[in-house]
Amino acid sequence: MSTSEQGISAPSIDLPAVPLTLEGSAVLHQMFRFRWSQWRSKSPEDRGRILAEAQAALGEMETGGSALFSMFGHKADLLFVHFREDFEALNQAQLALNQLELLEYLEPAVSYVSVVELGLYESTVKLYRGLVSQGVEPNSSEWNEVIEEAMNRQREAMHVRLFPEIPERRYICFYPMDRKRGEQKNWYTLPIEERQRQMDLHGKIGRRYAGRVQQIISGSIGFDDWEWGVDLFADEPVVFKRLIYEMRFDEVSGVFSNFGAFYIGLRCAASELPTLLEGKTPKALPKTRPIPSGRPPRP
After folding, report:
1. What's the per-residue H, E or C state across the chain?
2. Active-site choice (171, 175, 209, 263)
3. What is the pTM of this model?
């Protein structure tokens, strides 16, 4: 006789706490201060030679998944962002940059290592519930086999998002963040269903900015000092403020998140590097026409 026939409820099984994630491109952010006085002391011939080498290298790196940005504020002057297929290729990008004579005029300020990450809260909860309802024991060989099959299907379907190109947008906003894990507010002790509910509401805010802001989330647990890095790309910088401010009223951000420093920069194509180092704002993106004069329309 079954427990239900005896009038005894079967014991409930809690779902595993860890949501499934997909990982893609290895990512490196490198910020530098530029030694302007040292640069100005060089002869025009020396500067021309150094720029020619740097332009050629940066142009090649752009096709491989790198981008240069001119930074706002005192935290850094230049930001190099590298997206690569794996961490060995990422290391090669850093080493290639180190070989340039231009690096003698760059002082490292900040770096950040991460990997493009897609969180799968909704599909994780559905998959876990389905397996539990079938009586499959969590973390058993049968459980792991079903999970891996589902992950392989997701990897194939999400390949473009896992290995994205750096968006051809005029501005970047980058910041690191954590989920709180203190005594009073601890994201990691919430049931996975509750975290999934909050993440769904959080995601709805971001989706309202589709077409105006492109977002790439990268995971950095075990790679750097924070848990995630967030890259936002847009053609008009005020939209960053609007999006992030609106998310402050969301429970995930307002209650369970900590944020690091924010960095904002303006895209500089390899062809515009001489313009930038002459002290003028770059006016073109790598794959598009020059930026039209006048203020871009607000979103």
Report:
1. CCCCCCCCCCCCCCCCCCCCEEEEEEEEEEEEEECHHHHHCCCHHHHHHHHHHHHHHHHHHHHHCEEEEEECCCCCCEEEEEEECCHHHHHHHHHHHHCCHHHHHEEEEEEEEEEEEEECHHHHHHHHHHHHHCCCCCCCHHHHHHHHHHHHHHHHHCHHHHCCCCCCCCEEEEEEEEECECCCCEHHHCCHHHHHHHHHHHHHHHHCCCCCCEEEEEECCCCCCCCEEEEEEECCCHHHHHHHHHHCCCHHHHHHEEECCCEEEEEECHHHHHHHHCCCCCCECCCCCECCCCCCCCC
2. 175
3. 0.89
